[in-house]
Amino acid sequence: MNNILQDIKVIDLTSVVMGPYCTLLLADLGADVIKVESEAGDPTRYLGPSRTEGMGSIFLHLNRNKRSVVLDLKSEEGKGKMISLIREADVFVHSLRNKSIERLGLSYKELSKENKKLIYCAMYGYSKHGSYSELPAYDDIIQAASGVAATQGKMTGRPQYLSALVADKTAGLFGAYAIMAALYHRQRTGIGQEIEVPMFETLVAYNMIEHMYGQTFDPPLGDVYYSRAVSPYRKPYRTKDGYIAILIYNDKHWENFFEITKRYDLKNDSRFKDIHTRTKHIDFVYKTVESIIAEKTTKEWLNILEKADIPFSEVNSPADLLTNQHLVETKFFNKRKHPTEGQIIDLKFPVNFSETPANYRRHAPKLGEHNNEIFNSKLAK
Fold first, then answer.
1. Beta partners for 121?
2. Maximum CA extent, the chain
3. What pLDDT score does 378 carry?
4. CA 33/CA 161 separation, integer angstroms
5. CB 26 within 8 A of CB 179
6. Which of 130, 166, 239, 379 could cross-link 298 (Cys pair, CB 3.0–4.6 Å)?
7. 335 by DSSP, 3-state: which?
8. Architecture of domain 9-206+349-375
């Protein structure tokens, strides 16, 4: 069965999470991704538990379906081999700062001379067009710079990072869709192009969609922050014996909630009238719900809320997900035999395609595993 990106060749000069997540998505969709590493290897090789040095858990998840070569790009031989890869590639992705990539002689200006149809994707911490362009950047730094940490602080009382690597992975998603859009443009026009995916600007765009709020207008109609999203009472609610997530959102949900709880007094309370007034009084609204939810057990609420068609969920830990009934039914976690790491549990590509499904074709590679295969056979598959 064909893959969407079958026959697309990607040269991947990225490391850590942002770039590798971008190229993982391309690889899962069928692209032949060649990961170019230094002799030290991608730092994520050494993050998390492992059975073999350089094959850490995070690396295994980010680098399946890829091949690995080791090149010294500061040497003439290594640079020459990289250029040979670029000449036969469709896409080049890197996550070095602008001055660093220029020093290596691998800028878009230089590489487009070697391959005029090349899609060149530069994944930076900050856009090269601004004064922050050469600042170092990782997920924590961008969460702070982009307003994400401060936004979380509205709920917790102090700036706080999200526990997921949201900056890295969001920028990775933007990179993957930008590359595919550029490939479509090339298919129609025959023209390659340079893409810049700056993590800072990507996270600002991600965060400010809802949090521009009153500052959307000129002059402003209010402050920044979507009040519902930053309410300190927006959280899983404590039940008699645990926690539950519930979102009573539209008018129908509220009507059903008033009925199942027999709280007709709230139905007549003007603060619950509609979505506009509920949002205006969101702290009071959520505090009221919190007090009601505390009256029953989690199981009781699960049964009641499902019948009332009000959005709800149990509060799962990552460990809970491994045996979650729905994920078992959709075959989300899959046991696979890795040639050096033994049996591992892999994550399913979450999007389902009826004609061109993503698939698992290659295990995450050992460092430089494919040097001979690639350079002795001119990019043989």
1. 93, 195
2. 78
3. 55
4. 31
5. yes
6. 239
7. strand
8. 3-Layer(aba) Sandwich (3.40)
